[in-house]
Specification:
This protein has a domain of 66 residues. The chain is 30% helix and 27% strand. The protein is built from eight helices and ten strands. Helix 3 packs across helix 4, helix 3 runs parallel beside helix 5 and helix 4 packs across helix 5. The chain is globular and about 50 Å long. The structure holds adenosine-5'-triphosphate and nickel (II) ion. Adenosine-5'-triphosphate binds next to strand 2 and helix 1. The complex is composed of two ATP-binding proteins (NikD and NikE), two transmembrane proteins (NikB and NikC) and a solute-binding protein (NikA).
Amino acid sequence: MSLLEIRELTVAFDQYERGLRRRVVTALSGMDLSADTGEVVALVGASGAGKSLLAHAVLGLLPPNAREGGEVRYDGAVVARAARRGLAGREIALLPQSVSFLDPLARVGAQVRRAAVLAGVADPAEAAVAALRRRGLGPDVPRRYPHELSGGMARRVLIAMATLGRARLVLADEPTPGLQQDGARAVLAELREIADGGSAVVLITHDLPGALDVADRVVICHEGRTVDAVTPADFRADALSHPYTHALWRALPANGFHTGEED
Ligand SMILES: Nc1ncnc2c1ncn2[C@@H]1O[C@H](COP(=O)(O)OP(=O)(O)OP(=O)(O)O)[C@@H](O)[C@H]1O
Ligand code: NI
């Protein structure tokens, strides 16, 4: 049994039109994903396929109008939605896709320190400064507010926050946009190291070549459901059976063909 096992996860949103009429919008219709200690599992799929929703569901972060079905198992047991929030920080670290996860009203230093406290590190203040320094963010950065950061700097702050503890599971939701190519490559290498050090990593990404480089498995989702899971070694035209995965393969730059499906 893997550290994280998601089975047939479904998510539907209740929406109210003109106040009274209720409409149910299905966003996830059956996502399966597992990730074990030592593994990097990539989750790929077009924009809107439901990747971030899956990550948020694991941490019980979906809004109250979201209805959930299926199972999320962590460390061998089904964990109910409300209890999953308690796993955030020390057990599970989220590297959020959007820099809007930063609190606009709090200084960067205070937010990184709070993440260090949640992660249970010995000296949170020292760990926060060290984590920022490690990302090339100098001594003036802790005093800044999020709006005083560039996109790339904000991304590095989020990476610092998600990696300063030793979470058993890291959910990295598109960790590389806004970073230079070298920086992006370094982040993927670091996620690989985190897995090799004994954590499980779920890497949500639009960078399929990057995913094929670092991941042990690539899970492919399409319109709210997982459709395929392949190892990078099997990501070859002659080994792929699912048509959507095949289309992703053809869309790789090396294979010279564009489907227009991906970003
Ligand atoms: N709070 C919400 N209410 C209603 N629908 C939502 C809500 N949050 C997300 N959705 C819908 O769920 C679907 C999946 O969204 P999600 O953000 O998980 O996609 P994604 O695969 O992460 O896309 P991207 O690659 O662009 O980040 C989208 O159609 C989105 O509009
Ligand atoms: Ni997303």
